Amino acid sequence: MSPPSDNPDTITIHRPDDWHLHVRDGAMLKTVLPYTARVFARAIIMPNLPDPVTTPAKAGAYRRRILDALPDEGVASRFLPLMTCYLTDETGPAMLEEGFADGVWAAAKLYPAHATTGSADGVTDPLKLTAVYEKMQEIGMPLLIHGEVTDPDVDIFDREAVFIERYLNRIVRDFPSLKVVLEHVTTREGVAFVEDHSGPVAATITAHHLIINRNALFEGGIRPHRYCLPVAKREEHRLELRRAATSGSPKFFLGTDSAPHAIGDKEADCGCAGIFSAPTAMELYARVFDEEGALEHLDTFAGQAGPAFYGLEPNHEHITLARGETVTPGNIDIGGEAAVQPFGAGRTLNWEIRD
Ligand code: DOR
Ligand code: ZN
Known about the structure:
Layout: E1 10-14, E2 18-21, H1 26-37, E3 42-45, H2 56-69, H3 75-78, E4 80-86, H4 93-101, E5 105-110, H5 130-139, E6 143-145, H6 159-174, E7 180-182, H7 188-196, E8 201-205, H8 207-211, H9 235-245, E9 252-254, H10 263-266, H11 281-291, H12 298-310, E10 318-327, E11 332-335, E12 338-340, E13 348-354
Bound molecules: (4S)-2,6-dioxohexahydropyrimidine-4-carboxylic acid and zinc ion.
């Protein structure tokens, strides 16, 4: 798709934040974090480590490891990880309240048990966490939801829509002031849910769901590096996501869901879900907004709507995006024999970031 010819060649926006990010731990953390910190000022850090981040003590320790993994140059003083609490059947409202009051928790993340990578300790019945929702509503703590049912008899492409029907509608009806983010929305039903609800309900949208539809998973053969959850849907859904993201509505904001896995874990008999988009995420979003003739709404999506939802100020710094060449890195070593493969590895993009 070529952009309308009267689009601007440069655009300056608030320095963006990533409202949905996996940075992992150890050598992987050290490898992937600089790609995010190069561009983004803050990131909501997903808590689905092998030992999930379920307590303020674990979050504090993980936060420290993240800060220690930052490169020494300028970004170390700027980048702020915002920690999230991994909800389980056992999570208590008092611990959430205390951690939120202390500034440890920015939000809590609900994974339905076994919905995705690292969700084995997730919630078995999302309708049962009423005491948690009640408390989060009272204190204004955002609930971030992986919105997919897990029943094997629900088609994988319908799992988001069914989750909305079965759970989300009930949750927002019973807790009308609860701040809810439908993370990595992938369907027209998800977009409609967010747009139709007048309360504090929002969604993050990944760059890859704006760019690929489900055909891309099978283009010429099976493509494990394009597999994530929720899985990419039909073209009509992708177009609806593009409309919502570029509409200027503050209910939709940037969340990359960059989720690195070692290549050996992706190219396997049972390959992991997750797309590693951090190296060029902002350039990819710029391309989409350019193609949609909506660069004037990029600042709302990337720089303003997220902070507003979380009750924070936009970043004071700005970045400039300009037409120009950015080459997506190829495979990136993470130590030993292992490497990660970025989304679109080796491809040249037509936007670049100028600080
Ligand atoms: O594709 C995904 N990967 N979706 C998720 O929800 C989790 C993530 C991961 O942690 O790898
Ligand atoms: Zn995620």
